[in-house]
UniProtKB/TrEMBL annotation:
Entry's localization field: Cell membrane
Keywords, sorted A to Z: ATP-binding, Membrane, Nucleotide-binding, Transmembrane, Transmembrane helix
Protein name, as recorded: Multidrug ABC transporter permease
Membrane topology (UniProt): Multi-pass membrane protein
GO function term, MF aspect, one: ATP hydrolysis activity
Domain named ABC transporter: residues: 385-625
Transmembrane spans: 63-83, 103-129, 175-199, 205-222, 294-316
Amino acid sequence: MSAPSEAAEPGPAASVLPELRVMWWEEGVRARAEAGLRAVAQALPRLVRTAFRIAWQADRARTAIVLTCTLVAGAMSTAGLLATQQVLVGLFSAGPTPDRVSAALPALALLAGAAAVRAGMGIATGYALNGLTPRVDRTVQRRLYEATTAVRLDAFDEDAFADDMERAGRGMDSVIGLVNATMALAAGAIGVLSVAVALVVVHPLLLGAMLLATLPNAWSALRAGHLEYQTYVAGSVRRRRLWILNRLMADRLTAAELRAYGLRGFLLGQFDTVMETETRIQLDLARRVTTTNALGAVTGGLASGAVYVLLGWLLLSGSIPLAAAATAVIALQAARHSLNTVTYQVDTLYTEGRHFDDYTGFMERARGHLPAGDGQGEAGPLRELRVEAVRLSYPDRDRPALDEVSLTVRAGQTVAFVGENGSGKTTLAAVLAALRTPSSGGVSWNGTPLPELDAGRLRARIAVVSQDYWKWPFSAGVNIRLGDPDSPADQERVEAAARRAVAHDMIMQLPFGYDTLLDRTFADGQDLSGGQWQRISAARGFLRDADLLIMDEPSSALDPRAEDALFQAIRDRQGTLTTILITHRLANVRHADMIYVLHEGRLVQSGRHAELMAAGGRYAELFTLQAQGYLDPA
């Protein structure tokens, strides 16, 4: 049976929201979700091994305690059922009541002892699992974040990577369920085994009858869980879109623009469109799960009735005594409980295991996005940075972002990249910062190709002030210290960087100075304007005092006085340290040693300001357009 999906039921959502279309990367996952119950049975051994391996790696002692206690509890179950039979034999035997009670007392003591031991094993198991759970969670979470923080930047350009990460996050959350379900499954399976041993002792036919009575419910539980997983897999894009809409409609950062443009109706309409699809799919799922469970319940009820008919026949025919029949009734109830536990845990184990497969699959695919093996070369002080025929393309873009770009930057120079939006300036800066790897061509540092250099030591010599800076939810001081996290900076150094970025006086006016938390969602947190955040970002870049400082639109939100002071700090580096400057305010690049003009990914002009103005062309055109804005219109 196919999973309900947008493909099966195209509605208005598909035409309004392109994010809801069936994407090619979902096909493989959906194919896995189509596996039948045979696949469940085939997958269980692997999932059980996986869960035990994770638990063992996280905490061997507690895992051993759980396993030991589970085995002992199972043995006590068998002993308890056999003791129950002996108690009933003693009570149902001929003779005076005191004699019958006395005959039953040893078995009764054994029954009480078995129950006490089982209770103790349950307490010990709970204690061990409570300690095991956080250790397992920590191990799996850290592995995921180790992968997401190590992959190349271009991984985030791929739509499939976002879906993979979402499923991996759900898989990460499922690992606790996977381990707990495995432990509970082991307990249930041992409980079934103990009951089976007791039933065989009573009468072999009862073992088959027990299985016959419980299999229908087992099938329905497994099938219902499988249907739910199919629906979950098919809704990955839909969930991400809902999450985005939830943030847009209930976030303080979007609240002002939402109201200013009257976006309430538009966003609610988008929400309704997605939820119409979601509601239709969930109702269809509920119908199919209810039908499956009802079929299992009816069939199971008929089978249970047949079991009790069999038990009555055995009793009437003299095949088993009354005490054994009573024991069989107790055992069948225990078996039903244990098998219900097993089937529920099988369903949970398989469902959580499939989610965990998404986690392990992402971890495997993430290895393909890791940077090539770091070179061993030492990145010494920068003397020359050479770019040779670099070409770079983004996914689903017809035109390359960089197309055969070649240039040279020498130590102490201030170099400017100029061009219109989309010309390739930021991409070229990312290539120079070793954040992106070109499709062809290469970049060398002092004559050594970047891939041959130790990546960590290379990046320690580069600082990047990005136009897309992140507003880290830490204090002002910590925000600046993030510019050089591996070299703890004292307060004097932090303040010096802030002064160069025209940020010190602004920070001192905050309620707690450098200790002020820059996140209004926390107590005593503060908001900053765009220009104030830009100063913090520039201070991060200045803190490292790197050989190569790349500043991408560092003054777009600054007032004229702050902008002038910032560019004076940049000019102070000239002649000693190297700076690459990207800005649309061309008056600020007149002092540059070299200006490179890019257009549609190609390098179309290069030279100093005076040379480019004399040559005419694109740079002169852009500069003249800006200059006219400052002329008296009269």
